[in-house]
Design a protein that fits this description.
Number of strands: 11
Radius of gyration: 19 Å
Strand content: 35-45%
Shape: globular
Largest sheet: 11 strands, antiparallel
Order of helices and strands: HEEEEEEHEEEEE
Distance between the termini: 31 Å
CATH architecture of one domain: Clam
Number of helices: 2
Helix content: under 10%
Structural class: mainly beta
CATH topology of one domain: outer membrane lipoprotein receptor (LolB), chain A
Length: 206
C-alpha cells in the first residue's frame, strides 16, 4: 500500500529555496485535456488482446463521473465495472469479486472530469500527424501500472479527438491492448447500466 510521505524538518535559519516553475503542458496534452473534459458519456465496441494473443470482444460504456463497464461477449464469465465508487473485477466462473479504488487506476483519466493530466501524462511520438498518443503514469504510484492512450484527430470528435484505444502495462509488465470502434459520445446512458450481480452470492449469474 501507500508509504507515508516523510516529514522534512526545516532548520531555523535555512536559506529559502524558490522552486522552479513547472513546465507548461504541451499543445497536444492541452488538446487531450479538452477532449477528456468534453466527454460526458461514451459507448464503443472493444477488442481486448492479452500478452498471449488471446482476443476477447465486447461493449464498453462510460459515464462520468466514475462509471465504466466492460461487458464481454456472451459466454465469457468476466465483467469489469466501476459504479462510481470502486472499479470491480468480477469472475462469475469462480464467484470472485476484486475491488480497486478508481482514483488509483490509470483509467481515472477517463472517469474523472476534473482530472488534471499535466503531471502524469507525456506525449508519445507517432508516425502519423493524424494520430496523437500519450502515456499516463503516476510516478507516485508505480504499482498501478501505466496506459498509453491513442487518439485519432477528427473534427467530429469532442475536442477534435476520438479515442481509438490504449495499451495497459501493469507492474508485472503484463500487457493488455484495447481497441475501440463504433465510438459514440455524449448520448444518454442510464445509471442502471453500471449495476451488477455479486458473484459471491448464490443466485443468477451476470
Amino acid at each position: 500500500m501507500f508509504k507515508p510521505i516523510a516529514t522534512l524538518a526545516l532548520a531555523a535559519f535555512a536559506v529559502p529555496v524558490i522552486a522552479a516553475p513547472a513546465p507548461a503542458p504541451s499543445t497536444e496534452l492541452q488538446q487531450v485535456q479538452r477532449h477528456l473534459t468534453a466527454v460526458n458519456t461514451m459507448t464503443a465496441s472493444f477488442s481486448q488482446i492479452d500478452r498471449a494473443g488471446k482476443v476477447l470482444t465486447g461493449t464498453l460504456t462510460l459515464k462520468k463521473p466514475g462509471k465504466i463497464r466492460f461487458q464481454y461477449e456472451k459466454g465469457v464469465p468476466y465483467l469489469i465495472v466501476a459504479d462510481g465508487n470502486r472499479l470491480w473485477f468480477l469472475d462469475y466462473s469462480v464467484r470472485q469479486a476484486q475491488p480497486w479504488p478508481i482514483a488509483d487506476s490509470p483509467l481515472a483519466v477517463l472517469l474523472n472530469p476534473n482530472k488534471d493530466i499535466s503531471g502524469i501524462a507525456t506525449v508519445v511520438p507517432t508516425a502519423s500527424p493524424d494520430v496523437l498518443s500519450i502515456e499516463v503514469r503516476d510516478p507516485k504510484r508505480p504499482q498501478y501500472g501505466r496506459i498509453t492512450m491513442i487518439f485519432q484527430r477528427s473534427a467530429a470528435g469532442p475536442g477534435g479527438l476520438v479515442l481509438q484505444g490504449w495499451v495497459a502495462l501493469d507492474s508485472q509488465n503484463n500487457r493488455t491492448t484495447i481497441r475501440l470502434s463504433n465510438q459514440k459520445f455524449n448520448e444518454p446512458v442510464s445509471d442502471g447500466t453500471f449495476r451488477w450481480n455479486d458473484p459471491r452470492k448464490r443466485g443468477p449469474r451476470n
